[in-house]
Design a protein that fits this description.
By secondary structure, this protein is mainly beta. The protein has one domain: lipopolysaccharide transport protein A fold (Sandwich), CATH 2.60.450. The protein has 1 helix and 11 strands, in the order αβββββββββββ. Strands 1, 2, 3, 4, 5, 6, 7, 8, 9, 10 and 11 form an 11-stranded antiparallel beta sheet that branches. The longest helix has 6 residues.
Amino acid sequence: MMTVHKFGIILATAGLAATAAIAQVKQEQPISALKGHNSNAPVDVSADRIEVQDRADRAVFVGNVHAVQQDLTLDTPRLTVAYTGGTGGNNVQIQRLDASGGVVVKSPSETAKGDIGIYDLDRKLITLIGNVQLNRQDNQVNGQRLVIDLDSGRAVVDGGPPGVNSSGGRVTGHFTVPQRQQQK
């Protein structure tokens, strides 16, 4: 078991300014899912294999990697954990988590997916890169990069350069609309 001081995922809320997300390359929205999350809770990691590289101050988890912190989960084929204080083994401080091969991060109400995930504990930033998809219920935002700032509670979705994705480098979104009854 490894203890991580901060680990979180936040996704766009259902009211994620649909018209701005479709019309602009960047979309910012306060992130509500972090408010109740205890980012000081321990993180449990399981995998098919672990390789500890003490001289490089890192551990590499490979195969069906599953990390859990309270009600947040991260699933990926490969997770590299960079740390300090590994010599002697008792005071390991995790600095960064790098996930690759496809990353899925879930909270009880939201899911984020990307090709690569980076969690910088010192800067309190979570970044997903490549084919990013954010889902909450039936609402979805797509882009090429998602950066979540855990201090400010802001998420930014970038569309990427033109030609990188089918939307021409733009952020796209699909949002449900509450069904209202017609008045007669």
